[in-house]
Write a structure and sequence with these properties.
elongated
Amino acid sequence: QDEPVDALEALWNYTQLASDQYSAKKLFVTETLQLAIGGIPKETTAKLSHRAENEALSLIRSRPFDAEVMRALMSFYEMSNQTEKAAQVPDLVGHDSTNAKLLAQCGYILATEGYAQKALDYYDRALARDPANPLILMNRASCFTRLDRWEEASGVYRQNIEHGVAGKPFHLHE
């Protein structure tokens, strides 16, 4: 059990010297959180997990469009029975954003991680800024489907397919 921890300590030391700090820290974060989820006793990984959690928060704020770290941290929280905290991770970058693409990405991550209701809030905010974006519209409809809100989902699907978006036909391969 000490070998994985020793390897991660070495990886952490490498991050301090690496020319590409972001990539090195991202590797440390994803590997450490994966190890913490993977069954190594918490006492063994506690110090490293705490360091990885703090680095993950910093990385998410510095590059909000990189979803991998956000997903890793959410998985770590979920496996640690901190589901409320997991659902709040996208809020670190999205709660006061006015960027439609970033809001849509937060919605997508929440929806695919099982938080469809909260994802709808992000999609609604994204649509307020980019109301004709077909991808946001379809992802929002997908949330309705996940929440068994069939009428709302079918209305959005039908609207996009029959009438297109912003005067352009909508193709399902988009």
